[in-house]
Design brief:
binds flavin-adenine dinucleotide; 11 helices; eight-stranded parallel barrel
């Protein structure tokens, strides 16, 4: 079943994100992660794509194929800033041959050390290119607090519309810690005539270093309530883990109560995190989806 069909059937979709392990990590570790995550029967699992490096395509496609072999639909991420059209053709061909037809089409982050190829400048161009090729279901990224390169949310949502007009039929949000940011973006998107399902990206943070790195990478802001929690429990990993998982569950319950299309959980390849969160909202999801 492709991603569009999943959204057509469900009131609230629940999905996970994983990333390919570093080349220094034994490949078996991802097998165990995938076994545990697929055992929770999420609606789909997305697999990130390394922005540079020739092994990126193989790693993402292989893990996506593994997920598919376990009976769960995979969504393969693909970035374009550092690829030529010929390289995108090769990736698309490989994905099709492996039966992988769901792609989250992205521009990718700019890297100061690498010169972009110059054939694709933004995600909407990749989406249009893949859409024209045919045979793929295309998803794209959106940003509750606007992308860090955007002047403001209005500008960001105008470009988001282009991605949908180019052929994206599903959007996944950047992580956020204040649901009001997500609701504001959602309102703007709907007011701009974006009608496709928009999934909320949720990430439970397990240590302070991780949060600092993530916030500096993606520009997500931390509400006062969150900072208080972080400062209070930062020296006790078990307490911080409990607190941030509860925070994520609270976010999810509020999002579902407000009619969100789906929750995309950034698992950080930690099945125990996914198990905990899923276990805490399982009955809510079942109730919502039993309502037809
Ligand atoms: P774009 O949609 O191109 O947007 C980038 C900026 O340009 C924004 O400010 C936007 O408003 C503006 N813009 C968009 N279109 C145009 C246009 N036509 N003309 C002018 N300006 C425009 N990175 C990875 O390397 N690998 C991954 O697997 C990965 N997965 C991700 C998954 C999700 C759900 C999210 C939210 C992000 C992910 N990223 C990943 C990070 C992503 O690559 C970066 O956020 C990147 O900087 C922007 O990608 P984009 O596809 O949103 O770009």
């Amino acid at each position: 079943m492709n991603i569009d069909e999943i959204f057509a059937r469900k009131r609230v979709v629940f999905s996970f994100e994983v990333f390919p392990p570093k080349s220094t990590t034994p490949i078996e570790s991802i097998y165990r992660t995938i076994d545990s995550l697929t055992g929770l029967e999420p609606d789909f699992i997305s697999v990130t794509y390394g922005a540079g490096g020739s092994g990126a395509m193989d790693a993402t496609a292989d893990i996506a194929a593994l997920i598919k072999s376990r009976g769960i639909e995979p969504l393969a991420h693909l970035t374009c800033l550092y690829h030529s059209a010929a390289q995108i053709d090769a990736v698309a061909q490989k994905l099709k041959e492996m039966g992988l037809t769901n792609i989250l089409a992205l521009r990718g982050d700019r890297r100061p050390d690498i010169q972009p190829v110059g054939e694709f400048s933004h995600a909407d161009e990749l989406i249009a290119y893949l859409h024209k090729k045919g045979g793929f279901h295309l998803s794209a990224a959106c940003y509750p607090e606007a992308h860090p390169e955007s002047r403001n949310l209005d500008e960001d949502v105008r470009y988001l519309k282009r991605k949908v007009e180019a052929g994206a039929t599903h959007l996944v949000s950047q992580l956020f810690f204040d649901n009001n940011d997500f609701y504001a973006m959602l309102d703007k998107a709907r007011n701009h005539g974006i009608t496709v399902p928009i999934e909320a990206g949720i990430m439970p943070i397990l240590n302070k270093k991780q949060i600092e790195r993530i916030v500096s990478n993606c520009g997500a802001s931390l509400p006062k309530k969150y900072v208080k929690m972080l400062n209070r429990f930062e020296h006790d990993p078990a307490a911080l883990s409990d607190a941030s998982m509860s925070y994520a569950v609270e976010q999810i319950v509020d999002l579902i109560s407000n009619g969100v299309d789906g929750i995309h959980l950034y698992t950080m390849n930690r099945p125990e995190v996914a198990q905990h969160i899923y276990g805490s909202v399982k009955n809510i999801l079942q109730y919502e989806n039993s309502r037809g």
